[in-house]
Amino acid sequence: MGEVIVVTSGKGGVGKTTTTANVGTGLAKLDKKVVLIDTDIGLRNLDVVMGLENRIVYNLVDVVENNCRIRQALIKDKRYPNLYLLPSAQTRDKSAVTPEQMKKLADELREEFDYIIMDCPAGIEQGFQNAIAGADSALVVTTPEVSAVRDADRIIGLLEANEMKNTHLVVNRLRTDMVKRGDMMSSDDVVEILAVDLIGVVPDDENIVVATNNGEPLVGSNSLAGQAYMNICRRLLGEEVPLLDLNARNGIVNKLASLFKKN
Amino acid sequence: MDNSVIIKGTKSGIIVVLNAVITFEELKEAFIKKFEEASDFLGSTQVAVSFEGRALSLDEEKELLSLISKHSKLRVVCLVETDPLKEQKMEKALGEKLLEIEKNTGQFYKGNLRSGQVVEAEHSIIVLGDVKAGAKIISTGNIIVLGTLSGTAFAGSKGNTNAFVLALDMRPTQIRIASLIARSPDNPVKEKEKKTKIVYVEDGNIYMEEFNKNVLDDIRLN
Amino acid sequence: MKWTDIFKKKSSSNVAKDRLKLVLVSDRANCSPDIMDQIKNDIINVISKYVEIDTEGFDIKITQVESEENEGTVPALFANIPIKDMRAPKNK
After folding, report:
1. Is B114's Cβ below 8 Å from some Cβ in A?
2. Which residues does chain C have within 8 Å of residue A182's beta carbon, measured at their own beta carbons?
3. Residue range(s) defining the domain that contains residue B180
4. Residues B122, B158: one domain?
5. How many domains in chain B?
6. What is the domain-level CATH number for residue B193?
7. Residues of chain A whose C-beta is under 8 A from some C-beta in C?
8. Cα(A60)–Cα(A95) distance, integer angstroms
9. Which chain C residues are within 8 Å of A142, Cβ to Cβ?
């Protein structure tokens, strides 16, 4: 039986979709059978981040409305044979799907996949309710900024109210140089405030932008963010992985790497 | 009075009720007599004629029609069928003909189509503007984009494989024609120049090529 | 602000942390209207022993106020309790 994980944040633009794409791809790289579901109806994005936008024929709403079978709507990833995407509908709105329908869909996919990862829309309206409906656990993504942390706290409260068993925190876009200067909250600060389990810290990394441009998640690559995401995947599988030393890599190695890239 | 042939007038023509029992020769005689008698009354108008009361072969119908023109001043424009089975066939044929005409007509859409917008047409459609990525255009006929097509186009949505998609600047996310689907390559070659291209189906495959005189000659509009 | 404070200026990350902690206190309180209702009822019960109050106009909320001891703000519970009659209601 597969596990359903919802990736959520409350605030928009903190990296939910990027996290979904990378964690999903990472788990597939670790030989798990994974399906990613974009639940942001009307504003789909996961397909472009995954580089699969040109293969969409059917979408989530088609499946829910029985216009097609689940199999027909699932897009097989071009890089990993055991990774699939169920894209969202671009031309409908959130009310096209109900939490009950999402739960039913998640339960059907559980039979076949090891991990079902839901990319949740920003906000706490029906889209959020849809995404968390069938989920066993949640990844709450936040950045070390007051607005994002505040919204994350609200989301955690709502997840607790909905009796979510497992809630893990991902601190995204951390800048160690700013933390050192005292101009950015550290991941410890954020964890202290939110009081939830930390599952990973992802540094602010230009490579993320490059990867998104190319439609290829960078998980597992040599970049800092790529390693950070891979570590999150390992921890999801129950491995004990120490937190990445963001400082060391920020120094010489990274500079060398960027030197090579320029050449 | 001989009632083996009765002429009834209607708004658009005449109904001739024929005796079904007498022989065709007898019928002809009565027919001629009736029309000669009524010739002055009927005048020289254009009429539609229908025969009732007797099953006629095609030759018999022809003969009777020629008798009308010989023995009256009426000009028969058409023969209206009254047999319900034949009528159904006629209606169907008429419908098909009309549909065929419809296939060759198009409708215009002015403006850009942005992500999330869908335009669906029961005819061919001509877009005066761009179809952006994430937008979708669906037509039972052909799709012509006088602008950039970067979204999805679905031509021949009811199964017409002769449908085509044409755009002044062709860089679609996905093109569907009838039941076939083609998508853009994963690593698209960047073309700086705008090129008018046409996408069509041949031997069960979707092809895209530059639009020129030769391609134009190959287009079939149905 | 004392002149010595210039030398121990708070880092912006600490400011962020402190502000967040305060904001979340009221956010979380607002999150659970049940608890706010319980507080409200308890206050009404206590005060009603001594004066008659207008329960309709009764309102409580959590806000921030300037701290008296150190510079900064602390959360505070504000209650607006309209009194109908200074005498205790005749009960039992």
Report:
1. no
2. 11-14
3. 106-218
4. yes
5. 2
6. 2.160.20.70
7. 144-146, 149-150, 153-154, 157, 178-179, 181-186, 189, 192-193
8. 13
9. none
Q: Say which residue the tokens 């024609």 belong to.
A: B177
CB proximity B98 to A under 8 Å: no
Q: Give DSSP secondary structure letters for C8-56.
A: GPPPHHHHHHHHHHHHHHHHHHHH-HHHHHHHHHHHHHHHHTTSEE-TT
Q: Are residues B142 and B213 in the same domain?
A: yes
Using DSSP, state whether B65 is helix, strand or coil: helix
Q: Name the residue among A153, A178, A184 with its Cβ closest to that of C27.
A: A153
In terms of residues, how long is chain B?
Answer: 222
Interface test with C, best of A150, A162, A185 (most C CBs within 10 A): A185
Do B71 and B156 lie in a common domain? no
Q: Which domains does chain A have, with CATH numbers?
A: 3-262 (3.40.50.300)
pTM recorded for the entire structure: 0.69
The verdict on a CB contact (< 8 Å) between C28 and A153 is yes
Say which of B116, B136, B186 has its CB closest to residue A42: B116
Whose CA is closest to C72, among C15, C20, C24?
C15
* Residue C39 domain flag: yes
Residue-wise pLDDT tens digits, A16-71:
999 999 999 999 999 999 999 999 998 999 999 999 999 999 999 999 999 999 99
pLDDT per residue, tens digit, chain A (263 aa), is 899 999 999 899 999 999 999 999 999 999 999 999 999 998 999 999 999 999 999 999 999 999 999 999 999 998 999 999 999 998 888 888 999 999 999 999 999 999 999 999 999 999 999 999 999 999 999 999 999 999 999 999 999 989 898 999 999 999 999 999 999 999 999 999 998 999 999 999 999 999 999 999 999 899 999 999 999 999 999 999 888 777 654 445 555 555 555 44
**If 0-12 CB within 10 Å is exposed, 13-18 middle and 19+ buried, where does residue B72 land?**
buried
Which residues of A are less than 8 Å from C14 in CB distance?
Answer: 182
